[in-house]
Amino acid sequence: MTESQSDLITIANPRSPVSEAYRTLRTNIQFASVDKELRTLLVTSASPEEGKSTTLANLAVTLAQSEKRVILVDCDLRRPSLHKLFRLDNAAGLVSMMVDDEALQAPPLQETGVPGLWLLASGTLPPRPSDLLGSQRMARIIEGLLTRADMLLFDAPPVLTVTDAAILATKMDGVLLVVNANHTKREQILNAKAQLEKVNANIVGTVLNNVDLNKRLGYYYGEPEAR
User: Fold this and answer.
1) 42 bridge partner residues
2) Strand, coil or helix: what is 177?
3) What is the DSSP letter of 84?
4) What are all long-range contacts of 142-146, with beta carbons under 8 Å and residues at least 24 apart?
């Protein structure tokens, strides 16, 4: 099994405690949107190496397994990784839709091998990602993708490193913040939360990754290591 495959624990070992934790996360997100249907969700972190992409990919798998049509969109136009997790190509993707009207009409979606789950990779990395993500073209892309899926999941760069996540958050129904228990400082979490709140982002929850579990809890729950 390759490193990428092992990161997708919900595929490699769906009966594991970690996979069950992702299914619990799926349920919690669904309950968080009782009053308003949550169809677009941004996943980000305060700083790099928190495990956001791995968390997002596994969450997407569990949503597809619950018979939802899901599109993963790699909006980390600086360090894209979703195509690596699913061992897919990154030649065409979101950036293609930004510059090509044909791609806008027929998105270069790739099958992931999970029924009901497609990936829109990043494509060729642009010089100014923030400008693209904040454009009206991005709003049109989201609108078009929503006609093809029940839910869109977006991977964004860390909040404290660049403005991309905050810009995207203004276009989303909800934001999920991923935190590495052994890496992220409390001050970083609060700063990231404050930046998202400045743009009126709807923070639906926080995922605590890489928790050191005691023996009692360790039998039931576990979290994957951060990427």
Assistant:
1) 154, 175
2) strand
3) H
4) 142/40, 142/171, 144/104, 144/105, 144/107, 145/71, 145/73, 145/107, 145/120, 146/39, 146/40
Question: Among 8, 9, 73, 1, which residue's Cα sits nearest to residue 44?
Answer: 73
Distances (CA, A) of 44 to 67, 169, 203: 25, 10, 11
Residue 199 or residue 31, greater confidence: 199
**Statement: residue 112 has pLDDT above 60:** yes
Domain boundaries, the chain: 3-218
* Structure-token match 């400008």, residue found: 131
Calculate the alpha carbon distances from 122 to 3, 98, 144 in Å: 21, 11, 16
Find the length of the chain: 227
> Residues 7-64: pLDDT tens digits?
899 999 999 999 999 999 999 988 876 677 899 999 999 999 889 999 999 999 999 9
pTM of the model: 0.89
Q: What is the DSSP letter of 86?
A: T
| CATH, domain range 3-218 | 3.40.50.300
Residue type, 222: G
Other beta carbons less than 10 A from residue 113's beta carbon:
12
Round to the nearest angstrom and report the end-to-end CA distance of the chain.
17
**What burial class does residue 176 get, using C-beta atoms within 10 Å of its C-beta: 0-12 exposed, 13-18 middle, 19+ buried?**
buried
**Given the DSSP bridges, would you call strands 110-111 and 117-120 parallel, antiparallel or unpaired?**
antiparallel
Rg of the chain over all Cα atoms, to the nearest angstrom: 16
d(Cα 136, Cα 67) in Å, to the nearest integer?
Answer: 31
Structure tokens at 97: 């839709």
Q: Tokens at residue 11, please?
A: 């595929």
